[in-house]
Amino acid sequence: MSFRPPAPGTQPPYDAPAYGSTHKRHPKQALLRIGQTLTETSAPRMTEALYPAAANLAKGPGWEAQGERIIVAGRVLDEDGRPLVGAMVEVWQANAAGRYNHERDTHDAPLDANFKGEGRVFTDAEGWYRYTTIRPGAYPWRNHANAWRPVHIHYSLFGQGFAQRLITQMYFPGDPLLPLDPIFNCIPDAAARNRLVAAFDLDVTQPDHALGYRFDIVLRGRDATPMENTP
Amino acid sequence: MSATSSQTAGPYWHLIDFPAWADLLRAGGPNAGIAGERITLVGRITDGDGAPCPDALVEIWQADPEGRYDAAFHGFGRCATDAAGGFRFTTLKPGPVRGQGNSFQAPHVALSIFARGLLQQLVTRLYFAEEPLNEQDPILASVPPARRGTLIARPEDAGTWRLDIRLQGDDETVFLEV
Ligand SMILES: [Fe+2]
Question: Domain of life of the organism in this record (chain B) (predicted)?
Answer without folding.
Answer: Bacteria
